Amino acid sequence: MSSRTDRRGIYVDQAALLCRKGCSFYGNSTWGGLCSQCWREENHKSRAKQIEEDLALAKRLQREEEAAYANSNQGENSSARQSKPEEKKNSHKSHTVQTGKKFLQTIAKTTLGRDANVSSQAAPTTSVNQQPVAESDQATRQFIDYLKTLQKPGRDIFKQCHSFCHSVAYKKDLSAEDLSESVQDFYQNLSERLHNLYKGSPDRVEEVMDEVEKYLTLQLYEKAFCPESADDERKDLTIQKRIRALHWVTVQMLGAPLKEESPVVSDSLDKAITDIIEMDSKRVPRDKLAYVTRCSKHIFNAIKCSKRLAASADDFLPTLIYVVLRANPPRLQSNIQYITRFCNPKRLMSGEDGYYFTNLCCAMAFIEKLDAQSLNLSPEEFELYMSDQASPDRPQARGVSLPSSSAPRTGPKVDRPENDLIDWRDGAEASVQDVLEGLHLDSCAPSTSAIDSDNVDNPSQTHFKAKATVISGNPNIFSGEDVQLDCIVPDEPSPGWIFQWFHNDVPISANKVYHIKNARIQQSGDYTCQGRKLFKIWPYTRIANLSDPVKIHIDGGWVLLRTASESLITEGPMTLTCHIRDDPLLVNAIFYKDGIKIKTQNSNDLVFPSLSTEDNGIYSCTATWVKNLIYQSAQSLAFPVTVLERLETPRLVLVPDQDQVRIGTNVVFRCITKVNDKEQGLTVEYYYIKDDNRLAPASTTDTFIISRVNEEDTGNYVCKVYVRALKIERWSNVLQLTVLPF
């Protein structure tokens, strides 16, 4: 008899996480359950064997052709004259021998090329050239700025990386696997050289490898992410469709110990969902992994606050699956494959990043193979839910018998190895426990931004919101320059507030004004602030919620493009300034939009008197100046310009997002829009229309409810928004609602 107690829920054997060769590193399904190190060893053995077989075949073919050629020469010497057909035959044999030699030479060159880090080819087309030039330049400049701190080794590293990028970019028809193998070989060889160079300093080696990974992947991103040679895009669509079909899966079915009704738990889950979605916006594998880790830590915090106990590994995977199902992250398969192929392998083999990423791979595998037994449902229930004839929170279709999910089921439990997801063994490995013990989880105290039924009566929770602004300098500055930020609470300007500043969500200062002096590139990012005010009488404390972020960009180059306007609105002005470090004497400035030259002038400022949405685009500038009687020139990084409409086009949505509902359901429409105008307090009027018929008089609320719908409510719905003071109206998308009978 097993000593382990049967539990409901989703658990994974430690063997499903670790390398199947028992090396104690984390494995990956893409590598057949091996870690990157073991997979490379196996792959190199297989490749070496294939090359050896190809060489043997080439040599055998060459010997046969040379023998045939020798026999033909003997026949030629014995015959004084040779007919034309025989000449053609011998000519063909000679050509065949040369072909065999060329084949042998090709095999040898291929062998050498695979082992070399850099190959020089003269193909004119590169994927690097297909990337935005400014983005590639930015990655290069930041990489160079970092390598300057390494002095001579830095120059050698840059030369190797730069040559490798161009050698890969010049290769045509390079498969995803071949590109990944080339990058991983480069990582391995460079890491070995760095370990010899920085003996006894593994942290320095890891730091350099992180910067190398960032440079390489930014340079090769267009070629490496979701390449045409792979079927990542098809798999993305498949998993997205699968997750949409599983919208009915509940926390209870997965066995995740969550109390979603708690505002703290709900807030942690929302943050986890946001982070797993934000992963797609990052272009560096390390940055994508960082968002997986952030998501996972929010999950552990949600579990901790639900159980009021320390979170365990047993609860993590089912909760991660639930978060993925709720988030339906964009291009999930492509992101996982991109990380697997191009991340520094050391990061995936151990540590918290490797642990969380391995669990994410397991979660996706579970979702792909999820069936009735996985959720402790009958096959009939599962099919009804999947076909949307019924769901756990609403009645089934008329005439359909739905078995009780709580009824006991007979029959042996089937353990299927292809699921890769079976009961978790009671003794978790030390590597997993190290990850859990190293977690620094948030407090389970209610979030200051959570305003709901649980805390609305608490006077310390307010609708005040802090505001962060730039009061000196510019959000876009050169390294070495200064910028000052100020935090205020516009709705409560009286003194007495205590402020806290954050840089990329990390607390940095408790002053009202935050001064960035002698700025460094690493200080770029989002700056937010929050306020707290103490009273001598009840409620003693008032909280001002977190401000919107102020984005600070610190440039290490010679030229940058910037604007003094905080917001760009249609019909308003904009001035783009081509700013040069140290303000030398300008000769001329050339301005570009989306890579096309738009104007050359002898002043730094390009003025747009009245903006329109057609002015949206990616801008840059090239400046030429004189310094110490020497002409110099440089190009700025890309500067995105987004012009907002004074009244944004509304978006009509259903809450929840279901365009097919049953008779008797309450349907809620939301008309989402925003007024972007300097004039405050403008009133928006909302109109709701069905099949060209207005449903109700104009209102000032963005919500329209139809109580207990019937079949007559089936139709096409739109909303119109109107701002009378601006005399502007906008129409939404058409939303089709279908009311189904029971």
From TrEMBL:
The organism of origin for this protein: Bagarius yarrelli (Goonch)
Name the record gives this protein: Rab5 GDP/GTP exchange factor
GO molecular-function terms, A-Z: DNA binding; guanyl-nucleotide exchange factor activity; small GTPase binding; zinc ion binding
InterPro entries, per the entry: DUF5601, Ig-like_dom, Ig-like_dom_sf, Ig-like_fold, Ig_sub, Ig_sub2, VPS9, Vps9-like
Biological classification of the source: Eukaryota, Metazoa, Chordata, Craniata, Vertebrata
Keyword Metal-binding: yes
Gene3D superfamilies, sorted: 1.10.246.120, 1.20.5.4770, Immunoglobulins, VPS9 domain
Domain Ig-like span(s) in chain numbering: 459-530, 549-638, 650-729
Keywords: Metal-binding, Zinc, Zinc-finger
Region: Disordered, residue numbers: 66-100, 115-135, 390-419
GO CC annotations on file: cytosol; endocytic vesicle
Composition bias type Polar residues, residue spans: 70-82, 117-135
Domain spans labelled A20-type: 13-47
Domain VPS9 as annotated: residue spans: 233-376
Biological process according to GO: vesicle-mediated transport
